[in-house]
Amino acid sequence: MRIKRAFAAAFLALFACASGPSAQAIVGGEKVSQPWAAAFIKQNSGAPVEKRTYCSGVLVNPRWVMTAAHCPIAPGDTVVIGRATLASSQGEKRTVARIERMPHSNRYCPSKSWELCDVALVRLNAASAQPTLALAGSQVLREWGEGTAARAYGYGAASAATADRSSGYLKRAHVSIDDFRANNHTLFASGPRTAVCYGDSGGPLVVSTSRGPRLVAVVRARVGHDQTSCTRGDSQSYTKVGYRGASNNSKPFLWITHILGT
């Protein structure tokens, strides 16, 4: 899938947070449970939790959840971790204490365009006891690339027709990395019977390695890139966060490990 919609339409869709989700969600796929999966929920306004859930994420450190930088996260918003069904009490509930968005036009992101660096780390108000998902480091550098099977996770809408609310469940899409974009921060992935759609931005893309499952990318913004149509089989964009060896492609990884170490 290549750019099919106007820039303005994509921009407006991304930042509609009060009336609908700002990002992408999984169409098709299967309901699953993962202890490191996270969902971002606006403070209780009386609306159902499915209407207040707006982005997905992944626990990468007991105090930090990774997501997409364009997500309209605010201090005090709720973060649920390890919850398969949003309306349940499963897993943990924390609140957003601080947001660190990857900066651009500096030593970590050489691009002047923020969407190439669409990664954020959200500090929790208290440490989580849930298991974390490790980043793909240098030890597994040769174990993922074009053609690698992967899984995308998210809490987003079940279809474009229901884009104003989460499906209410953590879902998993089986995809394959089909365009690695070796010279920038993006990769594309697709699955014949699944797609990401509204509500999944920031959700993790995970591969199997000799060292166990590893986080290699997060569902990204659509600004300046492919317009997500929630259509099964479409090739959709992610921001690489795993270590790639070359300094340019390791920028998000280096920024993430720097923040986690502070």
TrEMBL record:
A Pfam family per the record: Trypsin
Keyword field: Disulfide bond, Hydrolase, Protease, Serine protease, Signal
Domain Peptidase S1: 26-261
Tagged with keyword Signal: yes
InterPro entries, sorted: CLIP_Serine_Protease, Peptidase_S1_PA, Peptidase_S1_PA_chymotrypsin, Peptidase_S1A, Trypsin_dom, TRYPSIN_HIS, TRYPSIN_SER
Record flagged with keyword Disulfide bond: yes
Signal peptide: 1-25
Protein name: Secreted trypsin-like serine protease
